[in-house]
Amino acid sequence: WPLVTSYSGSPDKNAYILCLLSCRNIIAYKVGYVKRLALEKKFLIFSKNILQKARCYDIIKYQLYLMAEDERGGAAVLTEQEQEFAGRLGPLLREIAELREASPNAAPQVKLLAVSKTVEAERVAACWQAGQPLGLAGLAENKVQELGQKSAALPAMIPWHFIGHLQTNKVKQLLAVPRLVLLHSLDSWRLAVELEKQAEARGFLVECLVEVNVAAEGSKFGLAPAELWDFLQSCAALSHVNIRGLMTVAPAVEQPEQARPVFAELRNLRDKMRQRAEKVAYSNLSLQELSMGMSNDYRVAVEEGATLLRVGSRIFGARIYR
What we know:
alpha/beta; 13 helices
């Protein structure tokens, strides 16, 4: 351990990482597999402060995670892309946690989704491989066809979220996606009826968020706030559609702070709707989730109670549209 701490101020991160991993390999050599996992957990907690000072804690944590998963004891090696995403996601997730702890209106738990639209499958796979052990909650797409292609090409355990506008003629195709955990954009009764029909045919419950056009933008989809309660009451009669919460897309603004009224209004709407739903005991209106906040305004969204953040370019870089 003195050798490890002597590297805490070293500008050479590779040497520091090598030293730490050497110490971890000694742990693996000296004890059995079960004890090794327990010691690695203590090792991570004990070394966290020093590792953060060296600004490579997330890469170390990820590397140790991979090693712990390898029952043969061999050292897994980070690919260049995985190291890139570990270096981006670690600080981002820490920042989200710090914002949540410091904000009185923040939710008890905030989940980060990586929006992978237009990103090639190889990079998406690297993002998930690096992000999942760090706390990345899932991946999100806004086109049904692209979601289908990527879900077929990538590991089956990835949780997928659909965040784009959904046409009724695409519902069957969407519900065929394995591990589709949440639809964020239920925005009409016609779509709700089709979701009920297709979910009943498949024999499962489809989890949804209702999209609300809080800012009343003509270019955006979503219900008007005044329409929300009547719509929720209608959805309460559906037996295969579960309404988990609300979603909104804030207007494109120069300063993230300008989005705060939109996020605060969605939180207030959710709280009012949840109170009404609890009074009449609607079983399929849990209304726990708030999906709001993207790369430019996620900080404000966390402060105003977001439970799901949809972040793309902050993780993957600028979009390349073909």
